[in-house]
Input
Amino acid sequence: MPNKLEKYFYKNKGRQIYKWAHYFEIYDRHFKQYRRRPVTVVEFGVLHGGSLQMWKKYFGRRARIIGVDFNPRCKELEEKQIEIFIGDQADRNFLRKLRKEIGPVDIVIDDGGHTMEQQIATFEEMWPALGNGGKYLIEDLHTSYWKLYGGGYQKRSTFIAFAKNLIDQLNAWHARGTDKKRFKVDKYTKSIKAMHVYSSVIVFDKGVVVRPHDEKRGKETDIEFSYLGFSDK
Output
């Protein structure tokens, strides 16, 4: 059954929206909890402005929708609830200035220029703007496999490779032995609660992450076990 975003998209007669069809289920799955609440949403990539209007309708009257684009003419698409900032998402100074100007953010959607430099710079600079409980969604990650955008299968400089490293980093608490010297807990270990991976899309959940611990409950039996222990304490 189509969700509200799909219904809006397929009935849209306003400004053009350009999205892969399977994205709408992903959006709704991760964003529906924010509907009709005060929420600040930042989308990189404005184009014709249709998706900004879609977010405005989806999240409701209490939403603040912010678009970011390199094209200065996109500023003409501002309207009630929709602000647009002009700048290059590969420019870290611009991103830092943007982060300071707009304040805390609940949702970041990267649908911008799709180059590896842009995607990685935007994630690194906008992650601090995201509040705990926030969502960072980056789409069109198939460009990690396209040479035109700086991608290539198993190329180390792609966002997909960057994200694979973040999966490791999420598990850095569990480093043992000599690995501890080069595999350390960092800001991402302490703030990425989950990563949801789909075709062309990754969604990051932000929150406070503390060192995992294991516990036991219940009575032991007299069954003897022979295995490698997991706790290594």
Notes: The chain is about 25% helix and 20% strand. The CA atoms of residues 55 and 65 lie 7 Å apart. Strands lie at 39-44, 63-69, 82-86, 105-110, 130-138, 192-198, 201-206. The longest helix spans residues 159-170.
